[in-house]
Amino acid sequence: MFACIYVPNFPVAAALRAEPELATRPVAILEGKPPLEKVIAVNANARELSIAPGMSKTQAELCSELALRTRSPLQESSAHAALLDCAQSFSPCVEDSACDTVLLDLAGMESLLGSLPEIARAIFERAVTLGLKANIAVALNPDAALLAARGFPGVTVIPAGKEADHLGPLQAKVLFPDRLEADQKKEADRLLETLDRWGIRNLRALAALPQVSLSERLGQQGIHLQQLARGGGSCTLVPVEPPLVFEEAVELEHPIVLLEPLAFLLNRLLEQLCARLGSRALATQELRLSFELSNLTGIEDDYENIGIPSESDGTGAQSASQIISSRQTKFVRKLSLPLPMLDAKVFLKLLQLDLNAHPPGAPILKIHLAAEPARPRSAQGGLFLPPAPEPEKLELTLARIAGMVGEHKVGALELLDTHHPEGFRMRRFVAEVARKTPQKKTPDSTEAQAAVTALRRFRPPQRANVTLENGQPMRLICPKKKEIQGDVLWKAGPWRFSGDWWEHEAWSRDEWDLALRNGETVSFYRLVHDLLGGVWFVEGTYD
Amino acid sequence: MSSAVVSTPAALRRPFIFDDETDPQVGTAALGCPIEHSSTATHAAHYLPGDVARHDSRGRLSPLERLIQSTPDRRFPPSSITPASRLEIRPAPEMASSGIPDLDALTGGLPRGCLTEICGTASSGRTTVLLAALAAASRRSEYCALIDASDALDPHSVAAAGVDLDRLLWVRCGDDPPKNNTPKHTRDGCPILAESFAARVGISPQSAFNLDMKRLRTSERCLEQVLRATDLLLESGGFGLILLDLADLPPQTARRIPLTTWFRFRRAIENKPTILLAIEQQPIAGSCSSLLLQLGALSARQPALASKESVGEQVADCQRTVPRAPTHAQLLTGLEINVELIRSRLERKPARSATFETKTAWAG
After folding, report:
1. Helix, strand, or coil here: B127?
2. What is the pLDDT of residues B304-330, one digit of tens each?
């Protein structure tokens, strides 16, 4: 058995998928170079208002209620990709027949997905989820399914052997697709006119014609059409493996300058992307958002204010890169996620926070959003494992905190292979539920639980005036911290460190541990003598 | 160990009336009315200490009686009063090791779902205890978050304490504001993505948030960041230990944290396996903290800290006994930290103290 998914009035369907709020309004799609734009497709509401394809834009504009949209190849390609995703989620054997038609082989799927009517209904619902109102037909052969999908709205299931009966009432025009090249359309119109002159209005009448006479008059084409009308097609499916490309785009008629309306559009795109990814049982670990900006004069200053972060500061979701093309009309943000996710709300919030921190600086004309597919994470939390932060929530939390304290000031610690006292860097904090910890040798319990004296660093280190005696600090005054001053009670050192002498950032220092009286108590500090700079400073306090 | 939750009826919103005051809603007849005739008063008297519910020696009603009498039944319905015997018994919190056996012996560990405060002056060992708690949480494979108000954490000390760095989220608050590309906002708060264009089309920008942040002083800005970050992390959930490092904040700044904030924090972690631990110079959370510890100043084994000469002799002795040991180890090894249990809501016992020693990372 074969199924056909057919989206009637595809240009309108693609526009409605991008703007679902237009579904209740009359819509007409325009094509052509201004001012010679013509209406190429209308929905049912517009047809009731006597708007028809072929009308000029000026004529269509006389109807004030009519929503006029320019035909968008971007939207149509997104809708077509969604159609293929819908088909691929039910069968691996899918033929991409036309931009609005997809055929799929359902052989062997009944044991997996249920009976044929159930499968057809599920396909219909999946298409609705992806923003497409499609006709679904299931029949014994692909041609019969295709004709039924073109002719019958909704879901149609034709039992085996009943093709001719079911297809009989359909009009003869369903034998030809809606969108044909000019010469093919001319030929189709000629045939239809001929059949109409003969009084052939539907497929039943065509199927009843004597085959020899039809062959004499219309040749092989006539025989082929009659076979189709009898539900006896013989075509074979040419399966395609659609690439895993998940992209959505929207072109705006008016530029956007505020984040709120942009978030509204992003939400729609993200929901569509997530629905498509979900239909293929995939998630995403990377989102690429690109804007085409209005090339207005006077916005160059804004571009200069946008810093391009270096590749090395890999702090996760905030490690978004922004690229401005040479003509400075494109703005790209990349959102990297620590784990594959599939939550449109989380993505939207992350993008909002990112755009809030890195505004594009110019009005937005076109939005393009792409998701890099990844296998969804399949981690099962252990019953006896300690809880871990939920990745989606944690990512949002980290993005919010980063917006508050700075991108490079939140994350996990990573010590660098150096003896430099500040030899560390911040990296992305990732909490995996079932992360396996390496089995370390368990030390002696008392040793493991011994408290280690900790240093609290002053960032930046505090300059100090030190009085030396025999090369050893005897008195210390810290101008900016009044509590750090007095005679040295107790000292240990110097402890000498140096490194990176082969680099420009060479360092060499002597460290002292000092005890100073602080009122009734004693405080311990680390005093450092920078041998290259010749200055003394207090690096921190032992606490 | 368990304790009972005592709830105050929410209907008691009126101010208390003292002996010499006259309640305008209560007439003289009401004042003379015997308490047994009032059903509400009888109801309340059943649950209140007898001395409060009875008349005083001059035959006047006590303030609480008058309050009860003046309260209409609809505002103080009998259903709002729950006998103490029927109150929900709050289970004792689960205790987790603090990483220091002496401290665990004193307090029983750190309570989960509760706020613990550790106070002390500089060099009193607060950070040492904090890192020990982090290391203990690491050993339990828990995720931890440290909100560092003054960006004072030393990564090498963290590693030396045995903390799993992959499981530690470090939030470094401070006066260094984030790199500011943040957009300006419209008057209703919507961010503007293209300011120059917005100006052309008549959208007037104002950067209210940035201005507000600039107005704040450094310490206040730190505090603001700490509180917001704590709120977010508590809301996020999943952390076994959340640490607030307020040790370098001046007490006058730390005291500006409203008590309601601490109540909110306490409420957020209630019935969750998270330990909220704050280190600070002085106690600031009031009754919101379930455990309050005071750390004493560090003291060395050598009794000669008082005089420089004797300290020198002591160090020299140490160097003689362990000739190859570096002087660093001699100075900071064997420091003693005195912990005093000031308050615990989990255990009604008098204040006690304990002492434990620390070691240095380089001395092994």
Report:
1. helix
2. 333 333 344 444 444 333 333 334 545
The answer to whether the beta carbons of residues A155 and A120 sit under 8 Å apart is yes
- Residue with the bigger pLDDT between A202 and B11: it is A202
Which domains are assigned to chain B?
Answer: 3-86 (no CATH), 95-299+335-357 (3.40.50.300)
Q: Which helix (H) or strand (E) holds A304?
A: helix A300-304
Interface check B78 vs A, CB under 8 A: no
Residue A313 neighbours by CB distance under 10 Å:
13
What pLDDT score does B253 carry? Answer: 86
Largest CA distance in chain A: 123
Whether pLDDT at A67 is above 50: yes
Contact A490 B273 (CB under 8 A): no
Helix (H, G, I), strand (E, B) or coil at B319: helix
List, in order, residues 6 or more apart from B340 with CB less than 8 Å away.
B293, B294, B295, B296, B351, B352, B353
Digit-coded pLDDT (tens) for B214-261: 545 677 788 889 999 999 999 988 899 999 999 988 888 888 899 999
Which chain A residues are closer than 8 Å to B233 by Cβ?
A: 397, 401
Residue B310 structure tokens: 């004797």
B130 and A394 within 8 Å at the Cβ level: the answer is: no
Q: Could you tell me which residue, B316 or A21, shows the higher pLDDT? A: A21
Max avg pLDDT among A384-388, A436-440, A496-500, B41-45: A496-500
- For residue A327 the two structure tokens come to 């003509």
Which chain A residue is nearest to residue B182, measuring alpha carbons?
Answer: A357
Residue window 11-50, chain B: list those with CB within 8 Å of chain A: none
pLDDT for A135: 93
Determine the Cα–Cα distance for residues A479 and A496; give it in Å rounded to an integer: 25
Domain ranges of chain A: 2-229, 246-296+315-374, 455-542
- C-alpha to C-alpha distance for A38 and A141, rounded to whole angstroms: 38
Number of H helices, E strands in chain B: 14, 12
From the options 2.20.25.90, 3.40.50.300, 3.65.10.10, 3.30.1490.100, give the CATH code of A246-296+315-374: 3.30.1490.100
pLDDT tens track for A234-243: 778 888 887 8
Structure tokens, A525: 């500090």
Q: Please tell me the predicted confidence (pLDDT) of residue B129.
A: 93
Nearest to A489 among B157, B311, B330 (CB): B311
Q: What is the pTM of this model?
A: 0.73
Q: Is the pLDDT of residue B115 over 90?
A: yes
If you count residue pairs, one on A and one on B, with CB atoms under 8 Å apart, how many are there? Answer: 314
- B251, B281 contact by CB (below 8 A): yes
Instruction: Indicate yes or no: CB of B183 within 8 angstroms of CB of A359.
Output: yes
ipTM field: 0.76
Residue A266 near residue A273, CB atoms below 8 Å: no
Query: Looking at the DSSP assignment, which residues form a beta bridge with residue B352?
Result: B341
Distance between CA atoms of residues B203 and A363, nearest Å: 13
Q: CB within 8 A of B4, min separation 6: which ones?
A: B84, B87, B89, B90
Q: Between chains, do B238 and A412 touch, taking CB under 8 Å as contact?
A: no
Q: Any CB–CB contact under 8 A between A455 and chain B? A: yes
The H or E element spanning position A446 is: helix A445-448
Q: Please check whether residue B242 is in contact with residue B134, taking contact to mean a CB–CB distance below 8 angstroms.
A: no
Q: B139 and A448: CB-CB below 8 Å?
A: yes
CA distance B110 to chain A (A): 15
Half-sphere CA count of A98, side-chain side, radius 13 A: 18
Structure tokens at B41: 């008063």
Which of B123, B135, B305 is the closest to A543 by Cβ? B123
Q: What percent of chain A has pLDDT above 90? A: 33
Domain A2-229 sits in CATH at 3.30.70.270
Please tell me if residue B199 touches chain A, with a CB cutoff of 8 Å.
no
